[in-house]
Amino acid sequence: MKKMNIGVLALQGSFSEHMAALSRLGVRAQKVRLPHHLANVDGLIIPGGESTTIGKLAVDFGLLDELKAFGRSQPVWGTCAGAIFLSKDAQRQQPLLSLMDITVERNAFGRQIASFETDIDFPALSRVSANQTPFHAIFIRAPLIESVEKGAEVLATLPDGRIVAAQQDHLLATAFHPELTEDDRVHRYFLFMVEKALEA
Ligand code: GLN
């Protein structure tokens, strides 16, 4: 099988933490800042940060259309701000990739209680790991996935049913930050999606 190469959008936010997580897994990874950096990558991670800033920089760097074209056929995973950027609807005016049929609510947990950590059930992770324990999820001024439409499906919710992870074919969105924990199961799940795309 072709050795995979993962791109990490490195305009703003927690891209170094994603690079480090991939390096711990022994996966080749490169930062993506300009359109030609997408040429040799098999999957792309969009980190958390500030979705308006990431969107504006993507426009300034001439990346918006290239990222859209990439994500139409190749795997993309957005964490937190990255999930917002992937969505079709953030309920505000800001540059979006509009690739996933999800509606997000930015800063859904408010500002005062901006950050929290909680254990969530993420059943799909059993496809890549025998570890059945809940996933310890870190939320930092996080969005919620308010609804999933068309082909998008819910992968994980908070105990009260609010959606925090979704997948639509080769696209993955998580409202939390797996790159800030030692638990590599969500990264491995995304690599599994990339592997499937390479085999197809
Ligand atoms: N609040 C940020 C936004 O709306 C997302 C926060 C994050 O990525 N940790 O873009």
What does this structure look like?
- This protein is an alpha/beta fold and 200 residues long.
- It has one domain (5-199): Class I glutamine amidotransferase (GATase) domain (Rossmann fold).
- The protein is built from 5 helices and 12 strands.
- The strands form 3 sheets. Strands 2-1-3-4-12-11-10 form a 7-stranded mixed β-sheet. Strands 5-6-9 form a 3-stranded mixed β-sheet. A two-stranded antiparallel ribbon has the order 7-8.
- The radius of gyration is 15 Å and the shape is globular.
- The model has no long low-confidence stretch (mean pLDDT 95).
- Bound molecules: glutamine.
- The site of glutamine has 12 residues, from helix 4.
What is the residue-mean pLDDT, rounded to a whole number? 95
Shape: globular
CATH architectural name: 3-Layer(aba) Sandwich
Structural class: alpha/beta
What is the C-level CATH assignment?
Alpha Beta
